[in-house]
Write a structure and sequence with these properties.
single chain; alpha/beta; Alpha/beta knot; Helicase, Ruva Protein, domain 3; 2 domains; 7-stranded parallel β-sheet; 7 strands; 12% strand
Length: 247
């Protein structure tokens, strides 16, 4: 039996949105598709009246529940699965998946996991530093003549695909297990980066670039919390042996 997405476990995360009206429009789009949670990162002075004008009074409850965070790490730390969105392609930014294909995966994952749909600023979108925090990156197919989408349009398309995948019975056949938190993964990646730099595997001048393939590998596996703890334990043992060998 197919599973419908649990929209209560899905949040839209807006990284440094520039216009209050766009946040209001996103709130309206989210409410249309059964999503009620929005997180805003790096912007606290957005005009409430402008947000309300664009959201309509029916989505005022979504605006009331907005969580504001100073940093993207704080915003994403309690999520198990993070989906980034981008119109700019490039080897260091992918691999990419369509909203429709991603929606099928979210339907299963949302049963036991908190999902974040991450959108960047209206003018620049998400940079590589934000995309590296994501487990998956979605790009919306558009005409080559004009690839730019309004923030609320992009949010609506992604949320619509999730909504139709669940209501049409397109979800995974069984719910995925509860994954490790993003904060747990970032702790593991930091430890791996330090270890791999120490043993000469990573270039110390640009370790994050070389860590991209490591991140992509673990993102495909879908690590559980206990598996993250196991990997960190292995890292500690390797660090101990590497240090003692030097001394």
């Amino acid at each position: 039996m197919s599973l419908a997405a649990k929209t209560k476990n899905i949040s839209i995360v807006l990284y440094k949105p520039k216009y209050a009206g766009n946040v209001g429009s996103v709130a309206r789009a989210a409410k249309n598709m059964g999503i009620s949670k929005i997180v805003v990162v790096g912007e606290t002075g957005l005009d409430r009246e402008e947000m309300e004008r664009r959201s309509t009074h029916l989505a005022a409850d979504v605006l009331d529940q907005i969580r504001y965070c100073d940093s993207i790490e704080e915003a994403l730390g309690d999520f198990h699965y993070i989906v980034g969105t981008t119109a700019r392609l490039g080897k260091a930014r992918g691999p990419f998946i369509s909203p429709r294909a991603e929606a099928q995966k979210i339907a299963g994952l949302s049963q036991k996991n908190k999902i974040a749909l991450l959108f960047g600023p209206e003018d620049t979108g998400l940079a590589n530093d934000q995309l590296r925090l994501c487990h998956s990156v979605v790009t919306i197919p558009t005409s080559r003549e004009f690839t730019s989408l309004n923030l609320s349009q992009a949010a609506m398309i992604v949320c619509y695909e999730i909504f139709t995948a669940s209501s049409a019975g397109g979800g995974a056949e069984k719910a995925a297990q509860k994954l490790a938190l993003a904060s747990e993964l970032e702790g593991m990646y930091g430890q791996l980066r330090a270890l791999l730099t120490n043993i000469g595997f990573l270039n110390p001048e640009n370790p994050e670039y070389w860590m991209l393939d490591v991140r992509r590998f673990f993102s495909r596996t879908g690590l559980l919390s206990r598996e993250v703890k196991m990997i960190r334990g292995i890292c500690r043992q390797l660090e101990w042996h590497a240090f003692n060998k030097k001394t």
